[in-house]
Amino acid sequence: MNWEWQQQAACIGQDLLFFHPDGERGRHRRARQLSAKAVCDRCPVRRQCREHAVRFPEHYGTWGGLAEEERDGIGGSGRPFGRRVRRASV
Length: 90
Ligand code: SF4
Prior knowledge:
Blueprint: H1 15-18, H2 26-41, H3 46-55, H4 68-71
The structure holds iron/sulfur cluster.
Keywords: 4Fe-4S, Cytoplasm, Disulfide bond, DNA-binding, Iron, Iron-sulfur, Metal-binding, Transcription, Transcription regulation
Binding site for [4Fe-4S] cluster: 11, 40, 43, 49
Subcellular location: Cytoplasm
């Protein structure tokens, strides 16, 4: 698995913005997701990130500008995963 693209990620060190805390719902969740997507909009590796999230698949968090519910049904095996922490802290 090639993770080198993550070295260029615009979201390095921002996992709290990209993964929802337990029990988060409604407008708080939507606001956090919009903030995360704004970071994705200026990310140079958005395409690689989105392809990774759909291929493996990643079930939690915002990846490649898509929230988890937006990735449902886009490819992948449907295998359950635990929460995965991504991106090296730099
Ligand atoms: S596109 Fe992926 S790597 Fe880039 S900021 Fe968004 S979640 Fe991070």
